[in-house]
Amino acid sequence: MNTTTLSALAEPNRLHIVELLRDGPRPVGEIADRLQLHQPQVSKHLRVLSEAGLVEVKPVAQMRIYRLRPQPFNELDDWLKSFRRAWEDRFDQLDQYLQELQRQSADPAPSQEP
């Protein structure tokens, strides 16, 4: 897992940019308009995302079109899967424990006559 990915996504404006790009490629101007930020601010955030390998740029005439690169997100998903497995195992153990408690409470207590 590349910690640069997490560092780049930790800044709220960059996370919002990534969320916008999730729906498809967008030019810098549109990103700035949608996030109500100045274009130089957006360009700075896009540079950080690009250096982290999260986005790539394609020049089209005078515009720069940015899109997400899937590889870093696939790596992030793979890293998160290990946590999902651990939590699923814990939930399975909890479920088994709760089922055992239900079985015990459903069984009538043995009578204790002398």
Structural commentary:
The chain has 114 residues and is of the alpha+beta class. It has a single domain (1-103), classed as Winged helix-like DNA-binding domain superfamily/Winged helix DNA-binding domain (Arc Repressor Mutant, subunit A). Helix content is 67%, strand content 12%. It contains five helices and three strands; from the N terminus they run H-H-E-H-H-E-E-H. The chain has helices spanning 3-10, 12-21, 28-35, 39-51, 70-106; strands at residues 26-27, 55-60, 63-68. It has a three-stranded antiparallel β-sheet.
- Using the CA coordinates, give the radius of gyration: 25 Å
Q: What's the rounded overall pLDDT mean?
A: 89
| Strand-pairing-aware structural class | alpha+beta
Spatial ordering of strands, largest sheet? 1-3-2
The CATH homologous superfamily is termed: Winged helix-like DNA-binding domain superfamily/Winged helix DNA-binding domain
User: What's the CATH class, please?
Assistant: Mainly Alpha
Which ranges are low-confidence, i.e. pLDDT below 50, for 5 or more consecutive residues? Answer: none
Number of domains: 1
Strand content: 5-15%
The CATH topology is what?
A: Arc Repressor Mutant, subunit A
Number of helices: 5
Q: How would the blueprint of this fold be written?
A:
Layout: H1 3-10, H2 12-21, E1 26-27, H3 28-35, H4 39-51, E2 55-60, E3 63-68, H5 70-106
Helix pairs in contact: 3-4
